[in-house]
Amino acid sequence: MALRMWASSTANALKLSSSASRSHLLPAFSISRCFSSVLEGLKYANSHEWVKHEGSVATIGISDHAQDHLGEVVFVELPEEKSSVSKEKNFGAVESVKATSEIISPISGEVIEVNTKLADSPGLINSSPYEEGWMIKVKPSNPAELESLMGPKEYTKFCEDEDAAH
User: Fold this and answer.
1) How many CA atoms lie within 13 A of 1 on its CB side?
2) Less Cβ around it within 10 Å: N or C end of the chain?
3) How far apart are CA 106 and CA 43, in angstroms?
4) Which domains does the chain show, CATH number per domain?
5) Of 85, 145, 146, which Cα lies nearest the Cα of 114?
6) How far apart are CA 79 and CA 114, in angstroms?
7) Is 110 helix (H, G, I), strand (E, B) or coil?
8) What is the pLDDT of residue 1?
9) Average model confidence (pLDDT) across the chain
10) How many CB atoms lie within 10 A of CB 21?
């Protein structure tokens, strides 16, 4: 997700963040940096989506870092169940008060469930990006694709380096 735009850079420079007030909601097993939370047990794409792989199901959403840069999410477009997603291809969009950004799939597979709560409550992506704000559940067609994703420490460093470059 190309989240680098002048508005988010300005907000970061001014230390404006809606996620700071939610720090009491973050789990104890997270790594926090710059008001963003990165959870252990998840894999992360450089486009800022996360994957939680459990058995034959992979849950996908956008990271706390991504939602923080987007600002208040007002609309989410997601695929239908039984459709396919492909690694590094667009599967939906997130519209915020700042911009509309594509959601890129970190893995390939069949969509087996869509978070229908997001249609009426897109703000769940802001308030709970790793729990209630998940987007789709996928049956991976190539589980080996998960190996190319970053772990929490690598993703934290990736975000820090990306933020420092802007």
Assistant:
1) 30
2) C
3) 9
4) 43-164 (2.40.50.100)
5) 85
6) 7
7) strand
8) 39
9) 83
10) 9
